[in-house]
Amino acid sequence: MNTAATNDFARASSLAHRAGHICRWTRTLIPTLREAPSDATVPSHQLMLRAGLMRQVAAGVYDYLPLGWRSITKVANIVREEMDAAGSAEIFLPVLVPMELYAGTKRDEAYGDLLFQLEDRHGRRAALGPTHEETITELCKSAITSYKQFPLTLYQIQTKFRDEFRPRAGLLRGREFLMKDAYSFHLVQEGEGGLDETYDRLHAAYTSMFIRCGLDFTIVEAESGPIGGSASHEFMVNAETGEDTILICEKSGYAANVEKCEIGERPWKFTPHAQQLTDHHTPGMPGIDKVVEHLGIQASGMLKSVVFSNTEAGNRKWIVAVVRGDHDVNEAKVRDAVGFAVQLADEKEAKQAGFAIGYVSPRVVATIANTTLLIDPDAATGLATGVWATGADTKDHHVTGFDWARDLGSPLPVDQVATDAGRGCSVRVVGVRNAEPGDPSPKAAGSRLVARRGIEVAHIFKLGTKYSDAFDFAMMDKAQQRQPVTMGCYGIGVSRTVAAAIEQNHDDAGIRWPMAIAPYHVLIVLMKPDDADHAAHAERIAAELSEAGIDVLIDDRAERPGVKFKDADLIGLPIRLTLGAKSLEEGAVEFKLRSDDSKGDLVPIAEVVARCVSEVERGLAAKA
RNA sequence: CGGGGUGUAGCGCAGCUUGGUAGCGCGUCUCGUUCGGGACGAGAAGGUCGGAGGUUCAAAUCCUCUCACCCCGACCA
């Protein structure tokens, strides 16, 4: 941890500068449910509904009720404090993004249906912002006039809209969600004031934020996706229910998401064999699964050939990536192997060029010009015998008994590359598949990758000049040379972070809030709210706690004890003070931590505030 | 969008096969008795059975269409 972050703990742990909020249960809205609505399947979703944090309005759209909103606000404030401390300034951009802004970046196409689009009364089209690279680049292009204003980092905390194909799991994937997005601007990538410096600072700030939120998380290397750019990290909250799989090397500490994860050295060789090449009629079986079943073989004994093409128009090039049938091709690795952008080939175009899509084999490299064949090492070696099944390059046919050296019809690389310059073809052995658990670690010899599940709560990117190029955003540098502006962007799913925190901190009875993002720190359970003396004690304790900066919820409902205790566990505030006749007669209240399963202990009234203060401070300072 | 599933009172569900008075538990309201881990008794309110059309003397139930929501797949904070 760097020193800046450490100082922030100290600042955050000091409660003296703010008065806590006091709220009475009967004066707010906490509609707890005894049973979870049947729509909810994951713990955080169920608990957020049961504990009265939110209600569903439509798929992926929620009302945030007082408790839920308070927690979201707490996360947002932690984010705000850390961003401010990292030298970033808060702004607020419009939700509405005119479609013209996308003209330069073509992201309306990249996002496709993910964009919520609308039309105003004059027929002008706009989108509800899914993020704001375009808006902010346009803003800064006009508002920043000199490189001397760099580096500059701006952020906002705002509702984002994404028309997800499939919203799910409550706040873990909504269509409308709260996000913090930040953008940094630089003239250079390296050195003082460069992108790298800001990226590292925000990387540290993010680490600090999630530690303060009390989360157990892993930082992984990531692909940058449609937002574009070079370096990229994701912050993953470790949770078995997470949607994302990450791979880690326990020995070196290397961690990456599946799309990005590198694989260590894999030795390979082509093994000749004597089995005959045999054609099989496999009608209507373009997929591996059905062929494997039909032929009675293992997926790992098949070669999967996926056709890509270059993205720029004209001068069409074909790339056929071959992986073992049980592996998945990784587009980014294909791109890196050939050195230019690629996309999955358009089916119609590919068929015109002669590819029997669904039944392609590596042999197309011998028949179709301008084809680069990329063979994954595991697709070269094979499991044991070197015998492969693959497509027959004819619709509805596959072959078995494929032998690389004998049947390819084109020279195979002995070392790495074999070229056939005359036809524009080449054959290379290069890693082009997704990493899997059990693969060798890229960072530590002998160590293997293991899989973990996680929830992506933040993602940071070095964008480079992608957006500044699109918007022609450039600056004169000191040498009076016009330079494109280099950018970074940094996102956090604020509402998702709350859901992830619950996913990670709950038990059968309910939520167990981390101190820093609990809606209230302390719940005072008033056993006899009608008793004026008891109520007065509660009010006095609450007032003192508030003075100490602690947020207090008083359960003043005329409910039976069982109901109150069940609800207390359900809403999961970290500290529970119970004021009942027995303890008060002894001049004490019952002090219990939500994280502690015992009955709690009696604390003299005079000492209870100090006990709470020390407990809250301990909770706020806790490391993940 | 492909596959699977569900829509009946605020929440959880039964009823549908075999058409005929819309039910149960929890919650809510009133009164009483209770009062340290989701009390008990008595009474009450609350439902266009997702919507539209059709079949029928009669539809929650059968048929057609439609909408919404959930789950599994591809993308993402």
Question: How is this structure best described in words?
Answer:
With 624 residues, the protein is α+β, with helices and mostly antiparallel strands. It has 3 domains: 27-246 and 457-503, Bira Bifunctional Protein, Domain 2 (BirA Bifunctional Protein, domain 2, 2-Layer Sandwich), CATH 3.30.930.10; 278-429, YbaK protein (Alpha-Beta Complex), CATH 3.90.960; 520-621, 3-Layer(aba) Sandwich (Rossmann fold). The protein is 27% helix and 27% strand. The strands form 8 sheets. Strands 4, 8, 9, 10, 11, 12, 13, 23 and 26 form a 9-stranded mixed β-sheet that branches. It binds one RNA strand of 77 nucleotides through strand 9, strand 23, strand 26, helix 13 and helix 15.
Secondary-structure topology with pairs:
Blueprint: H1 3-13, E1 22-24, H2 43-50, E2 54-58, E3 61-64, H3 66-85, E4 89-90, E5 96-98, H4 107-111, E6 116-119, E7 125-128, H5 133-143, E8 152-161, E9 176-186, H6 195-212, E10 217-221, E11 232-238, E12 244-248, E13 255-257, E14 278-281, H7 288-295, E15 303-310, E16 318-324, H8 331-338, E17 342-344, H9 347-353, E18 371-375, H10 377-381, E19 388-391, E20 397-402, H11 404-407, E21 417-420, E22 425-429, E23 450-464, H12 466-470, E24 474-476, E25 482-484, E26 486-493, H13 494-504, E27 506-507, E28 510-511, E29 522-526, H14 532-547, E30 552-555, H15 561-571, E31 575-579, H16 581-585, E32 588-593, E33 601-604, H17 605-621
Parallel strand pairs: 1-30, 4-8, 16-18, 18-22, 29-30, 29-31
Antiparallel strand pairs: 2-3, 5-7, 6-7, 8-9, 9-26, 10-11, 11-23, 12-13, 12-23, 14-20, 15-16, 15-17, 19-20, 21-22, 23-26, 24-25, 27-28, 31-32, 32-33
Helix pairs in contact: 1-3, 1-6, 1-17, 2-13, 3-6, 3-13
The chain binds one RNA strand of 77 nucleotides through residues 31, 33-41, 56, 58-59, 113-114, 130-131, 160, 162, 164-166, 168, 173-174, 177-181, 225-227, 234-235, 243-244, 455-459, 491-497, 525, 527-528, 559-569, 578, 580-582, 590.
